[in-house]
Each structure stands twice: as C-alpha cells, then as structure tokens.
Amino acid sequence: MSKKTKKKREPASGDVVTNRRARHKFEWVEKMEAGIVLQGSEVKALRSGKAQMTDAYAVVDGGEVWLRKLHIPPYEYSAVDAHAAERPRKLLLHKEEIERLVGKTAQKGLTLIPTRIYFKGPRAKVELALARNKEGRDRRREIADRDVRREVEREFKGRMR
User: Fold this and answer.
1) Rg (CA), the chain
2) What is the model's pLDDT at position 3?
3) Per DSSP, which regions of the chain are E strands?
4) What is the pLDDT of residue 91?
5) Reduced to 3 states, what is the DSSP secondary structure of residue 88?
6) Residue 67's Cα: distance from chain center in Å?
7) Cα–Cα distance between 127 and 113 in angstroms, integer?
8) Topology of the domain covering 15-133
C-alpha cells in the first residue's frame, strides 16, 4: 500500500502568492490593484514563488501607502547584498485613490489587506482589499450556511437519479 502524499496547494494561475486566510478572516468591502516598489533581488525571489503574506497589511502613512509584514526571503543566487525580508514596501496608487483610502480606513473596523501578488507583464502588482474583520459568530454562520447548501445539493442530486 502506498502512502497518500500531501500535495502543496498551488496558487491560482498567474498568481505568485495568495492570502487564502484573508477570505476566511475578513469580509471584503472592495478590491483594488496597486503597483509595488521592489528591489532587483526581490523580483527574482517573487518569481520563484517563495513569498509569504499571512500577516501582511497595508497602511496609509504621510500620503503614501506602505505594505508591511510581507515576507520575501532573500534570493539565494544574489551576488550582491541581499534585501531585508520584511522591510516596508511602498505601493503605487493615484493620489485620489490614496485620499479615498484615508477616508475609508478612518471608519471603524476597516483595514487594508493584500489578497494576492501577481505579475502583469514585467510589473509586480498587489491586489488590496478594503476589509472588515469577521467576528466568531459570522464565521460560524458561514460554516452553517455552507453545510446546509451542501446538504441541499446532495438531496437534489439523489432525487435526480
């Protein structure tokens, strides 16, 4: 008998890294796309798919948007000095978008979280979601609704046979 090997879950096509827990922890209000300022070795490390964004978040600071706690490990084949793995990275947005985000994040309970990083041509892009934290009862309700939906589908499929 052969053992079942646990396969690592791959991100969606075109995605470098995704934040799968974001959908579970947060309720997304709206999404937007932003460019990200990277160093050369960071781009190579991203293309190899080694980034982690489980605790990453974005903040508006001094009229600029910064991405914090995004972990991009140093590129192993880099000949010159390597980058810091969790340094703050600047996000590129239009001034009107930043001003709108300042107003939205000032509301109670709204935060900016990155949901995925991908390449659009030669440029790295970040998908940001303006999100509200889900409470425990919201998560439980979501699980219960999903179970009911599955049960209805099973019943419907059984009657069709």
Assistant:
1) 19
2) 52
3) 15-18, 26-36, 57-61, 64-68, 89-92, 110-120, 123-133
4) 93
5) coil
6) 11
7) 9
8) Small Protein B; Chain: A; (2.40.280)
In DSSP terms, 26 is beta-bridged to 133
C-beta separation of 71 from 86 below 8 A: yes
Give me 43's structure tokens.
């781009």
**Single pTM value for the model:** 0.73
Tokens 């919201």 found at? 138
* CB atoms near residue 59 (< 10 Å): 15
> How many other CB atoms are found less than 10 A from the CB of residue 145?
10
Chain centroid offset of residue 43 CA = 17
* pLDDT tens-place string over residues 76-95: 777 677 777 788 999 999 99
Q: Which residues, 6+ apart, have CB-to-CB distance to 156 below 8 Å?
A: none
Q: How far apart are CA 123 and CA 17, in angstroms?
A: 15
At residue 50, φ and ψ (nearest 5 deg) are -105, 5
Q: What is the pLDDT of residue 6?
A: 52
Dist. CA 105–CA 132, nearest whole Å: 10
pLDDT of residue 1: 44
Residue 161 has a pLDDT of: 66
What is the mean pLDDT, run by run of 10 residues, along the chain of 161 residues? 52 73 81 90 84 88 90 79 81 92 83 91 91 76 86 83 66
